[in-house]
Each structure stands twice: as structure tokens, then as C-alpha cells.
Design brief:
- The chain is mainly α.
- The protein has one domain (51-221).
- Helices cover 71% and strands 0% of the residues.
- The protein starts with a helix and ends with a helix.
């Protein structure tokens, strides 16, 4: 028997069943799970449309309504007031920023701070975009899976503890962002001194305070003209 005859199947050999063919079985498995992936994604999307999306829309509408009712200028003044002291700068300020502006616009509130404090504010604000979703999921809807993953076990085994977990997660987040803000501000000041940039940042601070004073003066003049 030649080598070619050995490679070719004999006429009397039975055909290989499809179920015993590993290549065909592999393609079948890929096809089934490929479609199943999109089916599961569709079910997840449907669940979000009937579940979390209405909540997000209502919360966003509520926040915009509150901002409109209170007034954007009052909200801005509250943020500027909270930037004066470290304990409010890394608690109240990032909380208001994340809830009102949501992620990632919340970081724009850093424009009310001197250059040397901006890294610490960013660190505290970016660390709060997950704890905030416990009560304000609209603030970071794209990463809501973090909180849902944390709370899934509690909902499965002790649903009555869900509210307590949400409360603790929220307030522990505030404690953490305070610590991170203070530590990051200290590290920033240390690096400024070590790299010999103290005078540069002093100039930044001087320009910042001069711009703030000029803005305050223009505001007073407008009030005087209106009166």
C-alpha cells in the first residue's frame, strides 16, 4: 500500500460522526456562545432600561432643577467658600462637585483652587465617584457596576442590611477622600520644595489671588451699577 493510499479513507470506513469531530464541535461551541453573549447583553440592557435608567434620568433632572432653583452663582459661591479650609476643601467641595456636575465635569471645580491644591482636589474628587453612586447613581452611571458588585452579596443574603451598607459606603468614602486630599496636598508641597519650584508656585498663587480679587471687584461694580 502506497503512502497516498494510507492518507485516503478506505471505502469501507464509516464516516466520522459530527459529534466526535473536535474541529466541528469547537466551531459549534463558538457559534452557540457567540450568540449567547449578545443575548445576555440584550437582557442586561433591557433590565437597565426598565430599572436603573429611569432613576438616573429622574436624578439628573432633579439636580439640574435644584441648581436652577438655587442659582448657579450661589452654587459657585458655596464651592468657593468650601475651598478655604482643608477639611471642607476635601469633603464638601468634592461632594458638591461630583453630585452637581457628575463625572468627569466635577474636576472643573478645581479652577477655584490655587495650583498647588489642584492635584489634591482631583485626588479626592476622583476617589468619590464610586461611593457617591450609593445614593446618587447619576453622578457616575458609567461605573455603577462597582457599587452593584459590592452590594450584590448583601442583597442576596441580607437585603435588610442594604441601606446600612449604602450609608457606611458613602460616609467611609468621605473619610477616605479627606485623608487622600490632605496627604496628596502634603506630598505636592514636599515635591515643590524638593524640586526648587517654590517661587514658581508663589507666582501662580499671586496670579490666582489677583484674578480672584479682580473678579470680586468687577462683581461689586456691577452690583453698584444695578443699584
Amino acid at each position: 500500500m502506497t503512502s497516498l493510499e494510507l492518507l485516503l479513507p478506505m471505502e469501507d470506513d464509516p464516516p466520522v460522526p459530527a459529534g466526535d469531530n473536535p474541529i466541528l464541535a469547537g466551531f459549534t461551541w463558538v457559534a452557540e456562545h457567540f450568540i449567547g453573549l449578545f443575548q445576555a447583553s440584550g437582557e442586561q440592557l433591557l433590565g437597565m432600561v426598565t430599572g436603573i435608567l429611569p432613576t438616573l434620568i429622574v436624578l439628573l433632572t432633579l439636580m439640574y432643577s435644584i441648581t436652577t432653583w438655587i442659582g448657579e452663582q450661589r452654587v459657585t459661591r458655596a464651592v468657593q467658600w468650601s475651598s478655604r479650609w482643608a477639611i471642607t476643601r476635601y469633603t464638601i467641595m468634592p461632594v458638591i462637585a461630583v453630585i452637581m456636575l457628575t463625572n468627569p465635569m466635577a474636576y472643573s471645580f478645581g479652577s477655584y483652587l490655587p495650583e498647588r491644591q489642584k492635584p489634591a482636589f482631583y485626588d479626592s474628587a476622583v476617589s468619590f465617584v464610586h461611593p457617591v453612586t450609593t445614593f446618587f447613581p447619576h453622578a457616575n452611571g458609567g461605573e455603577l457596576f462597582v457599587w452593584t458588585g459590592v452590594s450584590a452579596g448583601v442583597l442576596a443574603f441580607a437585603p435588610e442590611k442594604y441601606a446600612l451598607l449604602a450609608l457606611l459606603y458613602f460616609f467611609v468614602g468621605i473619610v477616605v477622600i479627606l485623608i487622600r486630599g490632605i496627604v496628596t496636598e502634603w506630598i505636592t508641597r514636599l515635591l515643590i520644595r524638593r524640586q526648587g519650584l517654590t517661587e514658581v508656585f508663589d507666582d501662580y498663587d499671586r496670579e490666582f489671588h489677583e484674578a480672584a480679587a479682580a473678579a470680586k471687584q468687577r462683581k461689586s461694580e456691577r452690583k453698584g451699577e444695578a443699584a
